[in-house]
Amino acid sequence: MPIPQSIVNTNESAPRFLQSQNVAREVSMTSLELVEFINAHRSRQSAETGSKFALLMHKSFLGKVPEVLGEQASAKFIADLPDSYGRPRKGYSFPKRESCLMAMSYSYDLQAAVFDHMTALEERLSQKVALPSYAEALRLYADQIEQTEVLRVENHQQATKIQCLEDLFREGETAAQFCKRLNGLNVMQVNACLKAKNWLFTEGRSGTRWRVSSYARDKYMTEHQHEVTPHGKDAFISYTPILLKKGAARLYDLYLAGELPMKKTWDGLFTHDKALRGAA
Predict the structure, then answer these.
(1) What is the DSSP letter of 185?
(2) Which residue would you say has higher pLDDT here, 19 or 165?
(3) CA distance 97 to 67
(4) What letter does residue 213 receive in the DSSP assignment?
(5) Angle 271-279/133-168 helices, nearest 10 degrees?
(6) Cβ(223)–Cβ(211) under 8 Å?
(7) Alpha-carbon distance 2 to 4, whole Å?
C-alpha cells in the first residue's frame, strides 16, 4: 500500500523516501483527514453535552476551501486522494497554517485542537530523527491508519447512539414510559432509582405521588399538573413528572453505564448494542 503524501512532506523532490535523517520535514493534513478530525471532535463534544452533531461531508468541506483560503491560494494545495479502489478523487493537502485556518472557519475550539494535533506530530517527528526515514514514515502511516479507524468507529457508534436516542425519545412522556423502550431495564424500579439519584421525591403517606426535585426540575424533568375531582370529595391538583430531552440523554447514559436497575432475565445487550448489530 503506498504511503500518502499527507503523512510526511520533504524538501527533496527526487527520492520517494528520505535518504538522509537530517532533511527538514513538515507535517500536513489532507482534506479527508481534516473532515475525519472535525467529525471526531464534534462527536466528543456531542457525547459530553448530549446534543446531536452535524456530520461534515468531504464535498461540503471542499466547497469551503476557496472561500477561506482564496481561489489562487487554495489551488496550490490541490491533491489527488485516490479512493479505496484507486480511482482519482480531488482533495487538498494542507500544511499546518492552512489546516488551522480551515479549522478556524468552523470554530476556535477546532482551530486549537488541530494546532495541538499537528504540533504533537511535529514533536514526534523531531524526537524520531535517529530512526531511518523509511521506517519512520511507515510507522507514522500505521499510526494514522489506526487513529483513523478508531475515529471512524467512534463516529459510527456515536451517530448510532444519537439516532437511537432520537428514535426513543417522545415529548411529554414519563421516565418509565421512556424506559420501556430500553432493552433489559426494570421499569417498575425506575422511579425508585431516580428518587435515590435525587431526581424525584414522593409526597403524602401513600408514597406513590411522585414529584420532581429542585435538582432535576427544568434540567432533566418538568411537571404536568391537572385538577382531579373525586366523587364526593374535594378537588386536588395531581402532578405527573415528565422527562425532558436532556433528561432522556442523561438517563440513556446512566443506562449504558449500568447505573439503572436491570431485569434478571436481561440478555446483556443494550438497545444501543442491538441497533449497532442491526446496522452492521
Answers:
(1) B
(2) 165
(3) 16
(4) -
(5) 120
(6) yes
(7) 6
Strands in the chain per DSSP E:
9-10, 25-26, 28-30, 78-80, 90-95, 200-203, 209-212, 221-228, 236-243
The count of other CB atoms within 10 Å of the CB of residue 236 is 10
What is the Cα–Cα distance from 218 to 78, expressed in whole angstroms?
50
The phi, psi pair for 250, rounded to 5°, reads -70, -40
Q: What span, in angstroms and rounded, lies between the C-alpha atoms of 253 and 202?
A: 24
Quick one: cell of 216?
432535576
pLDDT band at 266 (very low <50, low <70, confident <90, very high): very high
Strands 9-10 and 25-26: antiparallel
C-alpha cell at 128: 524520531
Cβ distance 222 to 248 under 8 Å?
no
d(CA 133, CA 16): 11
The pLDDT assigned to 274 comes to: 55
Rounded-to-integer distance, Cα 201 and Cα 195, Å: 6
